[in-house]
## 1
Amino acid sequence: MSYRDEVLNIACQGEALLGVLSVPQQPAPLAVLVIVGGPQYRVGAHRQFVLLARRLATAGFPVLRFDHRGVGDSAAPHPGFEAIGRDIQAAIQALYNRMPELGGVMLWGLCDAASAALLYHNTHRDPRVKGLMLANPWVRSPQTLARAHVKHYYLDRLMQASFWRKLLRGELASGAAGRGLVNNLRAALSRADSPLADSFQRQMAQAWQHFPGELLLVLSEQDYTAKEFMDAVNTQPVWRGALKRSGLSCVNIASDHTFSSSAAREQLERATLQWLRQLEL
């Protein structure tokens, strides 16, 4: 199926945001809004968002990828991922202005953009959003990072002969590695493992539990951000039962944080497309 790319101008609180809309010749009733995170803009790391949009648009799904405030070609200071709800709302409205026949929008986000998608639901309860595709959601805190290091780094180090040689020679006790281990153990064992009432992590968990639509969770097996998320889900009361909620699909991919290899990118695109097609039925 053929498609065309259009520039979409998005008005957000007096600022101009730039988006690129991939419109199939015969659009499906569900569209995808790609939210960018971290230092990325609408193209994405290794052209990830461009390639994803083209893949989905070729299959018939309209895709809008846009620069929220402070990134790419959009103006104004960056408000932080916790505060781009107005940007997301403006992009959805611009998408509906261009395609009023749409039946719903799916939000697609990687890292703190996945977090922003959950935060958007928590603050806006937008009925036009029918599903959330979340890749390696960002829930970082001192405790989650320390637990990830202890569980996924230091336990591996215990299996290495070089670790024990350094320990027997006393090189770990006074060095940076030893201090790092002690500090991480102290933080990991801290009782401050429940997010504060106004923290973005707690708001994410609330949105996860209360979102009425479908969720697709994609995790990179070689990524600390993904490991932190799973550790939080498995240990923090606010996430209790998160993986058992209805409408949740989970996919694990042997990849780094941004799915940088062609094989990992292909798996991510295929998982997203399969999920969209199931929702379309």
Note: The first helix runs from residue 48 to 58.
## 2
Amino acid sequence: METLGKIIVIGSGNWGTALAKIFSENNKVYLWTIDQKEADKINKKHESPFLPNIKLPENIIVEAKFSRQVESNDVVVIAIPSRFIESLTDEFTANKITNCIIVNASKGVEHTTLKTVWETMMNKIPTLKFANLSGPTIAREIAEDIPAKAILAARDVALLFQLQQKLENNLLKFEFSRDIKGVELASALKGLIAIAVGIADGVGFKTNIFGVIMTYGVHEFVTIMKFLGVYHKTAYSIAGMGDLITTCISENSRNRKFGKLLGLGYSRDEALQEVGMVVEGVSMAKTIDKLAKFNLSIPLISCVTRIIFEDVKDVKKELLTTLNSISG
């Protein structure tokens, strides 16, 4: 079995930086950012502006992306907003990167085709070795060395064992799955339900309603996954339900924070500006809204979409009316 090479994390936001930090427990890690100017700032302070007061270890080297050659046995962790995946894949092709190991940690789908990151990248570069990392993993908690458990998904079982040996440590443990698309889809959908919980919090509802929203949310995951021909039981795994619950209850969740601001009366644009980082659930809402044309029964997700994109005057009434209309 081939020994894995260096670890490169693409994306120096809070999630990419948190992953670089956790993987640096046992490895030297190269953290790739947009340009050398940004890299120099982080290297100088050993701190990311996205993770204030978190000291980065010396064995994390921050550099502009594609600063060094990527070998076939290198592990390239992708932690960028999903809307940039296609252009990143084009950059791979331009830099003749065709057969390394990809560990995708981005959450979202391609918004015109509903393709997952796996499908988007493998369609363009079929020689890549691909795995997906997902689960209940809030970036700030990972960066603070609080233990977590995630799912690694890959078609190649041998690759899963290799990645476990390379990436796992005392703080981060893995379950395995071969359902790459299901894990990716569950990861992308959970942001919508976290927005709903945030809205409920903003309008003054408490844990009774939060529990209802999360339960109905999982039901709608299953509806969407069945429609798309994905193994729906993944919705009940830590990649689905586990990630959903974590994102819904965490005060560090961008999706929940965005939803809470909507519940407090902020407009969509005001809420996005206040959060200050990409809110993947908003992009996902645009995508899932297209499924309404197929008459899928996803009333909660449809409600969240209306609140985000339409001028809903009474957000509290809209949410409560929707929840009361759902029966199991």
Note: The mean pLDDT is 92.
## 3
Amino acid sequence: MVSLRKNILMMSDPFYYQSIEKIVSAEFSDRGSKFIAYAYPVATVEVFKESLNEVKKLHPKASHYCFAYRMGHDGNVYRVSDAGEPSGSAGRPILGQIDARQLTHTLVIVVRYFGGTLLGVPGLIHAYKSSASMALQLTPVLRKKIEVNYELQFDYTVMNEVMMIVKKFSCTVLRHEQQLFSVFEIGVPKSDETEVLRILEEIPGVELKKKATPR
């Protein structure tokens, strides 16, 4: 399922990816056990760790903190955890709900409070799947442009020309330093990368350096 999901993401649109808009939560109950699902938009493993710690602080007496996430514009970074539940009964069902909506840069954590009755593996799969699905239904799906990061260095006298291109193609300004020269790090939409680079290279004194793979 994971490899198939990756292929679907890569073939669906090479210039866009889908993620969720905001943090949401939903609750599901079964035979006394309570499952609280939190869905987060995340871009890095560091943000995932912070989010997991935040949930653990909110629910210090919970019995399990199961999760799944998928990151990267092509969904090639993922992780699942059953957190002490039977193997395959929690993390995979949660990831399945992320994948069913063709999402990436998305984390779902499901907190369980044990109610005293064993649910069995089928019951657990249903509970974790249902709670994750309920949470993801509460947040709009965002279609975002894949960007490629570049560092630009140029004299301040061509600042207006550079900024016109940045604004015209909706590039993201990630960093700006004013020294002897202006230094910008920008995210260039992958769909417009060739055109943006062609125009920038025509501006006298602009130096370009690719910073990272598409994000």
Note: The chain is about 35% helix and 35% strand.
